[in-house]
Amino acid sequence: MGILYEDAVLIKEAEREGDDTVITVNCPDKTGLGCDLCRIILLFGLSIARGDVSTDGKWCYLVFWVVGNPTTRWNLLKKRLLEVCPLCTPAVSEIYYYRPEFQQPKPPDVFLLKFWCYYDREGLLNDVTKVLCQLELTIKRVKVSTTPDGRVMDLFFITDTRELLHTKERREETRAHLKAVLVDAMISCEIELAGPEVTSTCLQGSSFLPSAITEDMFNLELPCQTPSGSLLSDSVSVTVDNYLSPSHTLVQIHCQDHKGLVYDIMRTLKDYNIQISYGRFYAKPKGKCEAELFVMQVDGKKIVDQEKQNGLCSRLRMELVHPLRVDVVSRGPDTELLVANPVELSGRGRPLVFHDITLALKILTTRIFSVEIGRHRIHDRDWEVYRVLLEEGEGCTPLPRNEIKECVRKKLMGWD
Question: What is the pTM for the complete model shown?
Answer without folding.
Answer: 0.87
